[in-house]
Amino acid sequence: MKRMMLCVFIAVIWCQASTAAVLYRDLKGHTTSVSGVDFSPDSNYLASCDLSGSVRIWDISSGTMLLDVMHGMPVEAVQFSPSGKTFATAARDGSIKLWQLVSGSLIKTFDDFKEPVFSLSFSPDGKFLASGSNGRIIIWSTQELKKSREISLSGCWARSVRYSGDGKYLASSCGPLVKIWDINHNDIISKLTGGGGISFSEKRSLDFGSPVYTCAFSQDSEYIAAAGEGGLIKVWRAEDGFLLYTVAGHEGIIWTLGFSKDGRLMASGGADRLIKIWAAKTGKILDTIAGQDDEVFCVAFSPAGNKLAGASRNMLLRVWQLPGGPGSAVIGNAMVISFCAMIAVFLGFRLGVMYRRNKLKVKNWKP
Fold this sequence. Notes:
Layout: H1 2-17, E1 22-26, E2 34-39, E3 45-50, E4 54-59, E5 65-70, E6 75-80, E7 86-91, E8 96-100, E9 106-110, E10 119-122, E11 128-132, E12 134-141, E13 146-157, E14 161-163, E15 169-174, E16 177-185, H2 188-192, E17 198-207, E18 212-217, E19 223-228, E20 232-237, E21 243-248, E22 254-259, E23 265-270, E24 275-279, E25 285-289, E26 296-301, E27 307-312, E28 317-321, H3 326-363
């Protein structure tokens, strides 16, 4: 009995420990600060960029670097297209480049910006690429390979630009505000003027209260989160701008945040060298990943939901296995089966003892 209880206790403790993120892979090779990461749509590859201008594509399962291309200037952002066949990079010289994934060949360089470009976001259908810089957002047509639209921002940097998962909204940081635009597809006037048939009308501005460095939509487009100076994270309902909650996320600046595709989790990283994982709908802290030796610049969930990538100023690029993903499900099922087997053995043993005792009582009974 005591042994059985000890086994159950160990199983419970191990199960609790398995709810934390576990280091899956340490990807080495960058020689300067890693400034951006993004998973391919099939979750098989990871793109990373750094301030030397290098952009690398990694095979997640093996940790092998498959591709290394040079943008030419310090790169601030990298993102895969929804098809996974191309990826885009944005640099401090104001240039944006579109690349072929398989060959690494350059498709197009967009250079209308004259100041650093900090953010990129493909539309869900892959037809457009939004980019943000000082005082303006430019929307590029990835089919016609030219500028489609431009949105003017008054006196602020668009450090973070994001399409919503349903393609209805575009959001951007703008000083202490998060601005959200409605996207009108098949707009006749825009078509006639060569704007690609899309137009943007400002929906609302959300007041964060201090400079915003990062914002993100949940995959279902229901929520939008923002963070920046002051260590706070705020989450609003995208439809009406209702503030759902505010959490004290980090000490100092929060540089990055993002949602998992299933909408359950939100991750953040910042100047305190920590990566934190939150319950997206409540703001409850679920896990804190320490051990980064410098500021965390970027995080990204894999679309499959079982991995989290993070990178920092000191060239660290790591991938963690998350609880609740496919790998964790296998482990969890195995634990349940093992636990049930232990209970079955215990009950069988106890029933056997009771049977033998009753049998002995019957043999020794005298009328």
